[in-house]
Design a protein that fits this description.
Radius of gyration: 27 Å
Number of strands: 4
Strand content: 15-25%
Structural class: alpha+beta
Largest sheet: 4 strands, mixed
Order of helices and strands: EEEHEHH
Strand order of the largest sheet: 3-2-1-4
Helix content: 25-40%
Oligomer: single chain
Distance between the termini: 71 Å
Length: 125
Amino acid sequence: MDYGHIKKRDSGYVITKNGLPYWVPREDKEWESVHEYATAHPECVTDEKSTPALPTVEELAASVRAERDKRITATDYLVMPDYPLDTDKLEKSKAYRQALRDIPQQLGFPWNGPDDPACPWPIEP
């Protein structure tokens, strides 16, 4: 069978069938036939490596918020009423926690995620 131009991907091939693209995964009964054709006609094959999908803005925002929440949780004990902390350190801890809560309102949010150097993480007191 003449498959014409074939696109090879990590887990199968894309062929044209009835004028439309058709996915042939390795588990498909037609895969062996397409594979033999592709091996015999390498000039008809385009090798397409899959590229990982870039995270959406919502996913980046969620990852920044998750890191922010982790940093806030790590300081919860500092604001407990029975934790022995002098007034100055308590106020600095509260200011730090507020700065963390304000991260989503900062210009550029969510940047390229929590590891982006542009992300303005406040310095823990």
